[in-house]
Amino acid sequence: MISEYFSLIFPYLLINWVFFSLITCLAQTESRQNYFKFLVPFISVFVAYISVGGLSISEYLLSINPNFSIGSYGFVVARLFPYIFNKNLLSENDVTVFSVWNLIFSLILYASYFNLLRYDIYGTGYHFSGGFVILAILTLLFIWINCKLSLIFLAYIAAFDLGLLVSPNFFDYITDGFLFLVSVIHLGYMAWIRGWQWFHGASPRRFPLKKQVF
Amino acid sequence: MNLSRKVFLSILLVLLYLVPFLQKQVPGAKGFGEGLKILIPEQETGPEGQSPYFAEYFVNEARPGVMCHVSSIAPTQGHKLLCIWYAGTREAASDVAIYGAFFDLKLKTWSAPQVLLTPEQSSRELRRLVRKLGNAVAFNDSRGGLWLFYAAMVYGGWSATSLHYKVSWDGGLTWSPSRKLVLSPFFNLTNNLKNQGIILSQGAFLLPVYQEFIYKFSQLLLCFPGKSGLYYELRPLIKDGSAIQPSLIPVGPRGLTAFFRNGTNSPARFILRAVSSDLGRTWSDLTPTTLPHPGSGMAMTSLAEGAILGVINHSFKDRSNLTLVLSRDGGATWETLKTLENAPGREYSYPFIIKYRNNFHLTYTYERQRIKHVVFNEAWLKSIKGNND
């Protein structure tokens, strides 16, 4: 099944992101930039797919979260993009808006699923329903206001139509536990920066602590 | 973004959403639609003309330091039944494996138990980490598939289970590799199962499952077996009252009565009940039955004339008795038929019952050391009913 193979892509992207982030924090010289652009994706293949104790790192990650959403793919690709192509796919503002969307949608979905709300939203995600209409309208809105998040929103439904993920539920294409957590971390970090600016009148000293590589 | 690009993306958007919209309009589309109905297995005969029959067997022998629990039983090819259960040093231990044994209906003997699945084997088949195994249920579909649904844990205990399945097309001799079910939007936490499903038209079946992550509640899994695996949809069954481990009774082509383990901590708990007239899309409010309940698994099945036979721990306190109870009004009122086991301080629990041909086959945990198999027919039930009167 295509979903079994597609699910293996996300851990590879995640490992790339982790490596690029670590190197950005630790690397000394700017001259290594192009070198790392090729080296990191190459090394990540081995790290992601070589078996350790019977399973690969990818398979361990998929054991914890078997269904990384298209939203997660979008988030990690947006983070990875500037490291490889030297330009942003999404602006910081877009990422923050995306994180707010993920947080709100996830909280509503989890509250509904785990019996904190009376109405079951998750069960309506297997077939076309009101939730699909809302998502379509939101996507249309993002297209017409020139928001790049519209690409991720289009990817939700395109991937669902193609059955790229293991879950047959459309809402599992939008969010998952990992995306919820990274969105919370991102928003927490942004709030910390804003708070610091408010108190000190300047941005905090940010990673990388040493010279910026990428 | 220029205007032509916006128009292009807008048209693309409409086309992409048209796919699920049109799929829903297809007659006979998969899902909790109007087209599905319950397939009631043909009753061979009622109690008339039968002579009472009752027999007891042990599926396995007790082994020192090994507990076994949560059995289920299903007919297989070749005039046999397959019983499965889990066994290990304790519940949710890493050495727990799922065992199986065959009962030859002609010879009336159980085969030696065999390991059907270990955590390591499950991990190899899924290509995912599996540290522990839990409840398992065997279930026949209407197209010759024998399904083994089982709970497994990557981390944590019972509140971190997820469900998986294997299927056999040769009566349990060989099994497909395990596949994972994604049933929860948050790290796939946390579903479990205890009782068998209901066979539907179109090759589909309904499987009752339950949640224990934040709140305890029950869900229905609608399954459509296909060539490329299992298509499934999950719906909440009852979200109130900590009602878990549902046992489903078919009532007509689209009616269901569900009985639930009462997951509250009240000292005087009763088995809970709800009814649906639309194949589980909507349910009545939850009502307590008159059956006392110690917080344990129970099993229900329907009899020839629409009565319901229950196998329960008839106690508020413990699992030291196992009792047959009968209802003739859909579960509103009950009478005690027979106490099968009663030994203070011992445990007789987690019954599982099926009707195959003219006999009922009941399996349950016997003192946590063995699985007991009890066979009886409706004539026997009628005879003990007569004796009780």
Automatic annotation (TrEMBL), chain A:
Keyword entries, A-Z: Membrane, Transmembrane, Transmembrane helix
Biological source species: Desulfobacca acetoxidans
Keyword check for Membrane: yes
Full protein name: Uncharacterized protein
Spans traversing the lipid bilayer: 6-26, 38-62, 97-114, 126-144, 151-171, 177-196
TrEMBL record, chain B:
Domain of life of the source: Bacteria
Residues covered by the Sialidase domain: 80-361
InterPro entries: Sialidase, Sialidase_sf
Descriptive protein name: Sialidase domain-containing protein
Originating species: Desulfobacca acetoxidans
UniProt lineage: Bacteria, Pseudomonadati, Thermodesulfobacteriota, Desulfobaccia, Desulfobaccales
